[in-house]
Structure formats: structure tokens, C-alpha cells
Design brief:
alpha/beta, Rossmann fold, three-stranded parallel sheet, 3 helices, globular
Length: 67
């Protein structure tokens, strides 16, 4: 596991793919999901040092997810 771990939650697949490529070039290990309901599971598995969270998603918004 690298020192830099990114958890990306975004319902827009294409944006997630672009961000994953950029983060990987910056030596981040990247975990991603398009489903806010998977946040806790991914968080526990990845133990991220950084999180990119979409604030507007159909299932729930980023603020609701953080709460």
C-alpha cells in the first residue's frame, strides 16, 4: 500500500476515470465508486489519505454522505 491513497466518489464515470489517471501519475493508489452507498465499505478497505467527493449525486449529496 502506498503512502498516498485516494478515495474517489463521483457518479460521473468519465470524470472519475480522468481523475484516476491523473492521481495514478501522481503516485496515488486509487479506489473509486459511483455509488454513495459504497462509501463506508470502500473507506474501510482503502483507508484513504485523501478523498474526492462529488457534492451533487442522485442517490444522496456529498454533505449527506459525510454526515
Amino acid at each position: 500500500m502506498t503512502d498516498k491513497r485516494l478515495l474517489l466518489i463521483d457518479d460521473e464515470v468519465e470524470f472519475g476515470e480522468v481523475l484516476e489517471r491523473i492521481a495514478s501519475k501522481l503516485k496515488f493508489s486509487v479506489c473509486k465508486t459511483t455509488q454513495p452507498s459504497e462509501f463506508q465499505k470502500k473507506y474501510d478497505i482503502c483507508q484513504p489519505t485523501h478523498i474526492v467527493l462529488d457534492m451533487i449525486m442522485p442517490e444522496m449529496d456529498g454533505i449527506e454522505l459525510l454526515e
